[in-house]
Amino acid sequence: MFIKQCDDDNSIEFLHRTDIKIEQIENVKIEIESKAEMERIDEKINIKYCGKPKCEFLFAYYQPEQETKANMHFRSFVNLAQALDRTMVLTNVGSSRINSCQNFTFGFYYNIKALQDMFPDVKFISQKDFQNWLKERRRKPNTEHAYILPGESNYKMELLKPYPDILRTKHCLNRFDFNLNDDTVFKQFYTGKKFTRDPIKHQQFADFLVNNLRSNIEILLTSHFVFHPLFPNVSSPIPYANHYFDEAAKITNRIKPYVAIHWRMERANISMLNECSNVLVKRITQLRESFGIKSVYLATDYPIAGGKTQSQTFHLLTEDHHNAMKLLNSTFNVNTWASSNIFSSLRNDETIEKEFLGAGMPGIVDKLVCMDADYFLATPEGCGRAQSTYTTMIIDARNASMQIGERPQLKNIVNRWIKSPGDEEN
């Protein structure tokens, strides 16, 4: 007599039953055989997409900051995927963001081969291939969700009431054919206060996070609102795709020798903007005389192409901002990404054209042009946001180049055109 039960709670006990018809037994056999066949098919699909009979993915579907910081955060989650031995999903990009709602593949911003070289032990899969895997699967994979927040006196983890509907609508997870429902485990982590200031505490949190995310669930969904790396050891930024270097080279070859100015007007002292512009004009004039600087290139969050500002956090735009920019433009022939008509061959595409309404593609080109400049001036205190990851990335690249002699044309690493106490020439 057939003894095995079905997997669900409504399974029929067959042992010592006399009221079971042969047809019912055959139907249960077919159901079990069908499940076994689905398992075999799913194993083949898994091998196709992740190289082994069971896939275990980490999908960091949302990074809360713009591209430069998002680059850093994404690397944190690659570190997490490596620690958990999970395949990392290369989340889509666009509008200076890395998140699942964007239209472009990860390779639209970044060099995936270079990323693989940085993390040789991590397997990667594009968001599109991840979605294809989900579509081909006979059984929907299960998920677990982890959200990481700063704060609390010490690191900790708590279980939350599931909120799958918010994720589906706000983060476009309705586009993914996995099980995300009220049975999904939702974990919320807290880093502890100022956890990155002490390397020991930083590592303790990282270990705690890894240990509490080990599971055999097929898909680990992750997001966060932490503004620092999750792991103490931070790798170098993910290199950009080759087409950005090609586009930046067109500009630098045309305008060199040149001074590049990164003027991030966000958070400027409005009453100082006129002075900021006047002093900048004088400083550029001095540089042209001292170093034979030929051209001026401006990277800015000011809306040089019209419309909105180039930063999603820069909202207060006044007549003082406009006047400061008018003074600079009336004194010099200022080169920008807009005047250089970057990626002109691609801009007939309406989706790509939207990239130029924000800091996505233009912001990357600006960064590369600033890295190569003969002389680099960054925003001083009072004239805007003087400290940012974006500026730091430029400074670090110039410093590294100067150390190894990679860019012999560099006359400095960085200077501010208005000095603050403690500023040094370098």
Keywords:
426 residues; alpha/beta; Rossmann fold; 3 domains; 7-stranded mixed β-sheet; 5-stranded parallel β-sheet; 38% helix; elongated; disordered N terminus
What kind of sheet is the major sheet? 7 strands, mixed
The coarse silhouette is: elongated
| Structural class determined from secondary elements | alpha/beta
Biggest sheet strand order reads 5-2-1-9-6-8-7
Mean pLDDT: 91
Number of DSSP helices? Answer: 12
The proportion of residues forming helix, as a percent range, comes to 25-40%
Can you put this structure into words, describing what you see?
The chain is α/β, with parallel strands linked by helices. The protein folds into 3 domains: 1-53, no CATH class; 57-224, Rossmann fold (3-Layer(aba) Sandwich), CATH 3.40.50; 242-416, Rossmann fold. The protein is 38% helix and 16% strand. The protein has a 7-stranded mixed sheet with strand order 5-2-1-9-6-8-7. A 5-stranded parallel sheet has the order 12-11-10-13-14, with helices on both faces. Strand 3 and strand 4 form a beta hairpin. The protein is elongated. Mean pLDDT is 91; it is low at 1-16.
How are the secondary structure elements laid out?
Elements: H1 22-50, E1 57-62, H2 67-84, E2 87-90, E3 93-94, E4 97-98, H3 112-118, E5 124-126, H4 127-136, E6 143-149, E7 151-160, H5 164-170, E8 185-192, H6 199-213, E9 219-224, H7 242-255, E10 258-263, H8 273-291, E11 295-300, H9 319-331, E12 334-335, H10 350-353, H11 361-372, E13 375-378, H12 389-404, E14 415-416
Parallel strand pairs: 1-2, 1-9, 2-5, 6-8, 6-9, 10-11, 10-13, 11-12, 13-14
Antiparallel strand pairs: 3-4, 7-8
Helix pairs in contact: 1-4, 7-11, 8-9, 11-12
Keywords: Carbohydrate metabolism, Endoplasmic reticulum, Fucose metabolism, Transferase
GO molecular function: peptide-O-fucosyltransferase activity
GO cellular component, one term: endoplasmic reticulum
